[in-house]
Amino acid sequence: MLIESRPATDPEIAALVTAQQRELREADGGLDGQATATHDDIRYLAVVVNGRAVACGGLQALDEETGEVKRMYVRPALRGRGIARQLLAALEELAYQRGHTRICLETGTYLPAAIGLYTSCGYEPIPVYGPYVGNPYSVCFAKRLPVRA
């Protein structure tokens, strides 16, 4: 397994983001309303197994101190193997390298496995923020990152 940086325009990233968005729409009954497009300002990491990207996640700067995890997704056939946990750790390291002192994210109340992952990795619930305000299915989490010496 390899975790590598990929541009937002990478076809495998686009396919994973499309699959993630489709799965979210199915899980929430079509109420999520998130766009399926990738964004150029998100720095994507891909998990590559046997030459194929099987998972992705992105990091977007909200401000100088805060990074936001975006588009976390592992193909269903590969779930339960610790891939998401390793990808999340790599995104945290990327946030740290970019000088962020805090990392946050949004997920849905209908995704208990995702909530379990985030809380087991030290993320704590925070008030819903930004574009997620008003979405009754949104829950947000944050984690403090180590401070550079």
UniProtKB/TrEMBL annotation:
InterPro entries named in the record: Acyl_CoA_acyltransferase, Bact_Acetyltransf, GNAT_dom
Matches recorded under SUPFAM superfamilies: Acyl-CoA N-acyltransferases (Nat)
Alphabetical UniProt keywords: Acyltransferase, Transferase
GO MF entry, a single one: acyltransferase activity, transferring groups other than amino-acyl groups
Entry annotated with the keyword Acyltransferase: yes
PANTHER family, per database record: AMINOALKYLPHOSPHONATE N-ACETYLTRANSFERASE-RELATED (PTHR43877:SF2), AMINOALKYLPHOSPHONATE N-ACETYLTRANSFERASE-RELATED-RELATED (PTHR43877)
UniProt name for this protein: GNAT family N-acetyltransferase
Organism, as annotated: Micromonospora globbae
